[in-house]
């Protein structure tokens, strides 16, 4: 090993406990001694190897945090023979050639998405008409039976809640047109979007008729269009959010390329009616004059949480390095939502409405928790068998 790599190991050993990801296979707390300073070339005479803790993570860098892993691997490469390092550089140049071809692939993917969106649109238009109640499906159009719609599959837990559900469910008349509150319910069903929707937004979102996608002809971009029925809050028929894409290799960081990415978004101006803007709220504050003691009340408008803030994203400066951390996080979240709407929610809207598709892994987590609980119960059962009848201080069951 080179001296620089040994030196790095010495210094990193002091702080790597803050970076290492816990693993069921390698528990750092069990392997690293309290005093983690190891002199270069020094071995421990005791039962444990003082260098073993960090050495295990150098041999298996996957358990290190991203930053520390990168540093370890780069220094590892520098410690290799010069001929090997030259071959690695050749591989990196080949990787750049690969990326160059891949950018063209993603540009063609965009054109394909735009082409097929035009083929999807007649189907989505029919969906819109059914939801709005301007078209009534009949015959084979309404003949569909899903396994998930079978009452026998309702869980025991849901049976217990069914009585309460009947008391709080929406009470629509039998002759209701279309599918009421279709998009509002979808937004409430999707975790990523539901967090944005406030109770005061619902009265407007009940008027949301459709959400559509329009791909740009000048460069790579797409626009989400939110179509509204007339409402008392704003005069816009359509609210838009445009996302700009790129599939380019960054000169400063070429190996970060992972395909098409959103790099900017632009909202629209909402023409709010007077006193109906949900994105601001008016607060009243009393001020007392220090000398005279007179009290006056002032009012001012402050930002208010609302779904409609979605249409006023932070502006991305030309030099994206100047974005502050708060706006950077807001944009990252915004890009995620925009991508999710385009790729998942709009194409599969009815499935999010019915619950045939959900946007999280809660079911998988529940299954894992049940398995863990079962394992614990089995372990306790073994203890009971070993210990016989209950005692005041039963022996601990040793973990195998």
UniProtKB/TrEMBL annotation:
Gene3D superfamilies for the chain: 1.20.5.1500, Nucleosome assembly protein
Keywords assigned: Nucleus
Main location (coarse class): nucleus
One Pfam family from the record: NAP
GO biological process: nucleosome assembly
Bias-annotated ranges (Basic and acidic residues): 28-37, 382-400
Highest taxon listed in the record's lineage: Eukaryota
Transmembrane residue ranges: none
CC terms in the record's Gene Ontology section: nucleus
Region of interest: Disordered: 27-54, 357-400
Compartments in which it is found: Nucleus
Regions of compositional bias (Acidic residues) in chain numbering: 357-381
InterPro entries for this protein: NAP-like_sf, NAP_family
UniProt record similarity statement: Belongs to the nucleosome assembly protein (NAP) family.
Protein name, UniProt field: Putative nucleosome assembly protein nap-1
């Amino acid at each position: 090993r080179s001296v620089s790599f040994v030196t790095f190991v010495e210094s990193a050993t002091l702080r790597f406990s803050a970076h290492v990801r816990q693993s069921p296979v390698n528990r750092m707390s069990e392997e690293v001694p309290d005093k983690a300073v190891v002199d270069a070339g020094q071995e421990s005479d005791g039962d444990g190897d003082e260098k073993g803790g960090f050495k295990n993570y150098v041999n298996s860098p996957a358990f290190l945090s991203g930053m520390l892993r990168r540093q370890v691997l780069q220094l590892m490469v520098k410690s290799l023979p010069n001929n090997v390092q030259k071959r690695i550089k050749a591989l990196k140049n080949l990787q750049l050639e690969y990326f160059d071809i891949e950018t063209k692939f993603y540009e063609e993917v965009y054109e394909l998405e735009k082409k097929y969106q035009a083929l999807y649109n007649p189907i989505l238009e029919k969906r819109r008409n059914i939801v709005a109640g301007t078209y009534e499906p009949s015959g084979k159009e309404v003949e569909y039976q899903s396994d998930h719609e079978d009452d026998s599959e309702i869980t025991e837990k849901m049976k217990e809640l069914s009585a309460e559900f009947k008391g709080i469910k929406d009470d629509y008349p039998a002759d209701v047109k279309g599918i009421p509150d279709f998009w509002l319910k979808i937004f409430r069903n999707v975790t990523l979007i539901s967090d944005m929707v406030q109770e005061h937004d619902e009265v407007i979102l009940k008027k949301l008729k459709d959400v559509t996608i329009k791909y740009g002809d000048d460069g790579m971009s797409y626009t989400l269009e939110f179509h509204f029925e007339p409402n008392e809050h704003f005069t816009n028929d359509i609210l838009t959010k445009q996302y700009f894409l790129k599939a380019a290799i960054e000169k400063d960081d070429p190996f970060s390329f992972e395909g098409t990415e959103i790099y900017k978004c632009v909202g629209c101006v909402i023409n709010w009616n007077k006193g109906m803007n949900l994105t601001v709220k008016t607060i009243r504050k009393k001020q007392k004059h220090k000398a005279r003691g007179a009290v006056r009340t002032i009012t001012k408008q402050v930002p208010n949480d609302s779904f409609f803030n979605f249409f006023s994203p932070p502006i991305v400066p030309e030099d994206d390095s100047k974005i502050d951390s708060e706006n950077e996080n807001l944009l990252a979240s915004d890009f995620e939502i925009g991508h999710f709407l385009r790729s998942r929610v709009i194409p599969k809207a009815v499935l999010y409405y019915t619950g045939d598709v959900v946007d999280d892994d809660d079911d998988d987590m529940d299954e894992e928790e049940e398995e863990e609980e079962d394992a614990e119960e089995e372990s306790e059962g073994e203890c009971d068998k070993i210990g016989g009848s209950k005692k005041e201080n039963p022996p601990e069951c040793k973990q195998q």
